[in-house]
């Protein structure tokens, strides 16, 4: 793979990460309750796709703020749920490991997106 193609692929990693999390969340809700459609995740998927195509700085800032605040909220929710499990429970540790890794990754992606879009060209 050429260096320029590799840079193009690496350039979109934060957006792809957010798309994958939103797609997972959408499909999880759809498969759990087929009559319920998560329109918020559909909007996030459409918004991130539009951001990749348009490369708009305001959209990047808005997306990073929404994803950052949502990730912090969900991170606190994971810690709250973890404290309800008995100490040393395997399910609680699994919840903590998966939840923290998922929301720390999305939080870091929300930090890198505005840096990437507001960097001087």
Kindly describe this structure:
- The protein has 121 residues and is an all-alpha fold.
- It has one domain (3-118).
- The chain contains five helices and no strands.
- The model has no long low-confidence stretch (mean pLDDT 89).
Low-confidence stretches: none
Instruction: Output mean pLDDT.
Output: 89
Total number of beta strands: 0
Into which percent range does the helicity of residues fall? over 70%
Q: Given the structure, what is the number of helices?
A: 5
Number of domains: 1
N/C terminus separation: 24 Å
The SSE string, one letter per element, is HHHHH
Main beta-sheet annotation: none
Structural class: mainly alpha
Q: What is the overall shape?
A: globular
User: How big a fraction of the residues is strand?
Assistant: under 5%
**Rg, nearest Å:** 16 Å
Short description:
The protein has 121 residues and is an all-alpha fold. Helices cover 83% and strands 0% of the residues. It has one domain.
Topology of this structure?
Blueprint: H1 3-11, H2 13-32, H3 39-54, H4 57-82, H5 90-118
Attribute tags:
121 residues
